[in-house]
Amino acid sequence: MYFTHAITRLPADTVAAGLTTASLGAPDAALTRQQFREYIDILLQLGLTVTTLPALPDFPDAHFVEDVAVMMPELAIITHPGAAARRGEVHSIAPLVSRFRHALWLGEGEHMDGGDVLMVDKRFFIGLSSRTNEAGISRFAREVEKFGYSVQAVPVASGLHLKSVVNYVGRNTVLLSASAADEPAFRDFRHIVLDPAEEYAGNTLWINNTLITPSGYPHTLRQLQQLDLPIIQTDTSEIRKMDGGLTCLSLRF
Ligand code: CIR
User: What keyword terms does UniProt attach to this protein (predicted)?
Assistant: First the structure.
């Protein structure tokens, strides 16, 4: 799929107050914004039109826009984020999403974070995680199956979201952690298995046949180079401190 647009949100000064399981210290707000701007520059360089929403200081995780909506050519699903502290974010993204797609909302009890939703052509792999539950996946499946998509639930054994440790990287290949390598859902794909010391680099973004990968993961970089696709490395040190990565920072469509 070729993307022409991205929606992003400027990280707020309050970024350090967001949710995290990482014990890497507090992120620096100014450096977070600089890394975010570098990410936007990459999207622009790849030919996307980028719309950036203003910071939402009351929601310190709100720049992780991927979690609050799932975009498809036919529709958008506004999620019901698994973490109560993030639920209010949906109200400020929905009006913009609705300008581009007919938007449906998941309801009370139908938990889902977009970080658990991996789309490969007409197939969705959705992580069953601490943020996404069976009810969320069932409702999502009901809505998208009407448009010819299939939905497969995948238990998330490590990492916050499915896409923290499994991503499609082009050429019928998934980049995934050793803990996900035996997952039957991915048996039709070639596998690149992450070095356990570099699991974070699993959040590599395949976009318009280019790979955007975090800098500082040399083993993964060498593995990705075998795909013979253009690779852009970018520093995400501050984003990582809040459990975020490259896919989380945008909605692409
Ligand atoms: C959270 O815990 O919700 C945020 N601090 C990080 C969300 C990362 N989102 C993603 O991987 N899609």
Answer: Hydrolase
